[in-house]
Amino acid sequence: MDPRRFLYDLRSLPAYRDQIVHVEHIPARQARYAEPEKPLHSALQWALKRQGIARLYSHQAQALDLARAGSNLVVSTGTASGKTLCYHLPVLEEILQNPRAKALYLYPTKALAQDQLRSLREFTAQDLPFIKAGTYDRDTTQQERAQLRRTAQIILTNPDMLHLGILPNHSSWARFFANLRYVVVDEAHYYSGILGSQVANVLRRLNRILDFYRARPQYICCSATIDNPQEHAERLTGKGCQVISEDGSPRGPKDFVFWNPGLLDSKTGTRRSANSEATLLFTELVKQGIRNVTFAKTRKVAELILLYSREALLKTDPELTGKIKSYRAGYRAEERRQIERELFQGHLLGVASTTALELGVDIGGLDATVLTGYPGSVASAWQQAGRSGRGLEPSLSILVGLDGPLDQYLMRHPQEFFGKPHEHALIDPNNENILRKHLPCAAYELPLSGADAAVWSDREALGSIIQGLGRQGILRPSGERWFYAQDDYPAQEVNLRTATSREYDIVDVSRGRELLGTVNAETAFFFVHPGAIYLHQGETYLVQELDLRTQTASVVPVDVNYYTQTKDLTDVRIVQALKERRLPRATAYWGQVQVTTQIVGFKRKQQFTETVLSEEPLDLPPQTFDTRALWFDVPVEALAGLAVRSQDPAGGLHALEHAAIA
Question: What is the DSSP letter of 90?
């Protein structure tokens, strides 16, 4: 594609109102190659040649050399830089030298594991046909699971399955673990925050079991570009790691555009809907045959962009309406796989997606990406933007600004984005709330002992939590060891990603209760409350009933010109302040809180204009969870001073909240 030609065409549209506020031209980069210290096995050389790979990029050769030297390592390079070979080559070389060797590949999602299995089989099909690999997830049958445990040299799975299905049953995996030579953690940057802290504990439980079987595998982590790859990989795996961050892959030129929707009201700063602007860009890209993904921050926005785009294309290019789809969590697995295939094979010109496509599922070469709103971090923005670009071909990325303060600041100061380093990935493996969940799981797998202080590193916290679990009757002491004291299966009670693993089914009662999709119990009240409009692939459905007992939302297709948006009230109750710090004009606290959210009603908003048509109350039970939080005590005199100057104290505090989490 020619990005500059497309931008020229955009400027000539009737809807163009100087929305382009900045264009950053990122020049092409030539490849840097290197040879490993000793040649690859001939079978691997042939396999590479069949993939059209004559030489290794410098970071791939460096990864191979470090792995051969016995190092744990983390590769932190850009999107589509060939990181997969950084672990495939050492793993396959090890298996060629020792056919009993095993490798465990961990991916954030089932979809990515299945995609990578397909890629691995293509790579090994002709020159290494004896390599046995398979995915081990919830969709794997019991017969297939037993076969994989017996024969597979490479298991591709996800942290959830490792936590729920593999570690608690490690005795069935004794041969696999005893011969494990590599543990691969792909998309390691994805594991940040609470999820990352949970996964770090799963990997520490894995390390305990590997010690039990006297296995000493190497870790290879692959990450998008972040500012602390070595620190993050070490905290995630509990092992020292070497870092590779010099990217040797080539890159075509990219134009990165900041697109700010026009003002509707200069006094309030209200701007045109970013959803409508993203729709305009999405449809224009599709009309010009430019393959793209348009990212949205929520499921509803992804669905609205598809809905609006189909309506727009029906008027001008109806034959293109079948060339666009939406993609998000909550679809049936087979539906998501079908969309991935259609995008990869070029049958689709555009997909409106949540961050579900931010990860490395192979969807073929894209020419453009549109980001509907700043995704919250520089690293995530570049990850989404990096999904476009094929080899040395030019590509385009467009960030559409929302009307919030952070997006508008970046629109006014683009160099704050382009000149800013990628953020740190932050996790806390010793978070006491998380340890309380994982230590019973660990004790179920193997009794806890003093040696575990080396696994978790914080001896004092570990001892205190174990004693507390003992007092609760969850653990029981026997000599110097602690055993799990209950009759249940503790891993089943710990969901790595959400507070609950429960899901609501969404069924179309007009088609014999056909399953359309699912929604997590935590968010069900937001999306499938009675009277809600549920959006699915551009189709609108009315929620007739939400059955809390059977966890089922019954829907029927409807033809309406509105969508729904919930109104909620959230109350935060301080339970206990654990730490405090005096600041010059306030006091900051860190402690335990209880958060209660209640959906109290919903609005019907007109499609396209987003005008509120009506509102209705809802009577749904409140949802409560316990967590930890940071809060400030703001002096009364400071708030009074704002009021005297006719400034808005509540608005100021709200702005402070956004600044604190930015």
Answer: H
If you write DSSP's letter for every residue of 355-398 in order, what string do you get? GGGTS------BSEEEEES--SSHHHHHHHHTTB--TTS-EEEE
**Average pLDDT of the segment spanning 53-70:** 98
- Name beta bridge partners: 134: 155
Bridge partners, residue 580, by sequence: 589
Q: Which fold has domain 33-244?
A: Rossmann fold (3.40.50)
- CA atoms within 13 Å, Cβ hemisphere of 329: 12
**What is the greatest pairwise CA distance in the chain?**
80
What digits encode the pLDDT tens for the residues 216-255? 999 999 999 999 999 999 999 999 999 999 999 999 999 9
Cα separation, 105 vs 183, in Å, equals: 6
Q: Measured between alpha carbons, how far is 386 from 556 in angstroms, rounded to an integer?
A: 39
CA dist 184 and 219 (Å) reads 6
* Cα separation, 294 vs 272, whole angstroms: 18
Work out the pLDDT band at 499, boundaries 50, 70, 90: low
CA distances from 257 to 19, 269, 378, 389, 516 (A): 10, 21, 15, 15, 36
Has residue 533 got a pLDDT over 80?
A: yes
* CB distance 394 to 3 below 8 Å: yes
CATH number of 432-493: 1.10.10
Please name the amino acid found at residue 56. Answer: L
Residue 407 burial class via C-beta count within 10 angstroms: exposed 0-12, middle 13-18, buried 19 and up? buried
Please report how the helices 42-50 and 84-97 are oriented relative to each other, as an axis angle in degrees rounded to 10.
140
Average pLDDT, the chain: 94
Give CATH for domain 3-27+253-418.
3.40.50.300
Q: In 3D, which of 168, 239, 159, 156 has the Cα closest to residue 194?
A: 159
Domain boundaries, the chain: 3-27+253-418, 33-244, 432-493
Element (H, E) at 115: helix 110-124
Please say whether the beta carbons of 404 and 253 come within 8 A.
no
Same fold, 3-27+253-418 and 432-493: no
